[in-house]
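User: Predict the complex with zinc ion.
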Amino acid sequence: MRSATLWARMLGLSKAVVEGVEFDEVEQTIVVSVRPRKATKRRCGLCGKRCPGYDQGSGRRRWRALDLGTIQTFLEADSPRVQCAEHGVVAAQVPWARHDAGHIYAFDDTAAWLVTHCSKSAVRDLLRIAWRTVGSIVTRVVADAETKTDRFKGLTRIGIDEISYKRGHKYLTVVVDHETGVLLWAHPGRDSKTLERFFDQLGAERCAQITLVSADAAEWIANVVADRCKNAELCLDPFHIVQWATKALDEVRREVWNAARKGGQKTLAKDLKGARFALWKNPEDLTERQAATLAGIAKTNAPIYRAYLLKEQLRQVFQLKGIHGIALLDAWLRWASRSQLPSFVKLARSIREHRVGVDAALIHGLSNARVESVNTKLRLLTRIAFGFRSPEALVALAMLDLGGMCPPLPGRAAA
Ligand SMILES: [Zn+2]
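Assistant: Here is the predicted structure with zinc ion placed in the model:
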């Protein structure tokens, strides 16, 4: 093998000609001079179309390659500019790196792979780059992959949710594929405008193929889905509805507790405060002591126990699902309305208002559980993404890790 070919192989280059290799004694780096093969010359760096040359740009330019052994390595080449009919004067495309990138493909892909497999400091130390550089790299790797793959093909069931980051100050809207549990799309913001971007990207034809959408009861989601996906049924997430019941139960507990405190019933007040967790838990998860607490409440405190049973039965509704679930829900609504517990009367009213979505969830047995599990992982990623400069980098990291977009390590076929 000719040494120029060997160098190109070692660096993971294709469509490039190695012209020379030097060792920089001062910087202690290897500098490899390259040029594109003829066929790949004079293309717009943005769109890749062939176009007339413009000028020689700012002379020689360098790109970080993967280290060779222990030595930091750079590619060096001319960086001519072309005149694209669409994009004007831009740097010509190079076959070894993404447009505007300071690192070659193999470096970018290695960084993207490492970031989903190793700790933050391992990535930084191994690659000798700043964390914000990792953020830029994952952003362009994902943007590039998105132009090459059609991730929305055959999509019929999706789940939509939101997740907070930056200590609850910022939000991402998240869309997950129910079939695969894969993160399809995420974007900063939580409003109808944000969600409309997803459906814009999906396109009218594919929107029409969506049959089921699961979400919480947020009005902005319901409105956009009704507007954009004419053939889709919206399923309200059972978990959220049971959560409403847990809140209603807590309201009852708090009222009784306040009354007991004000009335000087110290022991009762203390017992009720301690009973909080027993009331929240599913009966099958109760410890022996919590079960005893609950039994005490059943004996001495009718309203709280009634509220507890209401919460439990509502949970039962969603465990049953189907027509039996719907029948049980009918009975539950009548019971809750007559319960003389204001918070449950109110809850029954709002469930009636959302009845179509609740019934759809019962019939199709669709919950947001898959979305929630993606969100749990995403929440961990928001911590890793801390230090990235833009929310786009956080989204890109999520797409790599949870959206199946992580590239294979260079030189190896995709697993
Ligand atoms: Zn162009």
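The first helix runs from residue 3 to 11.
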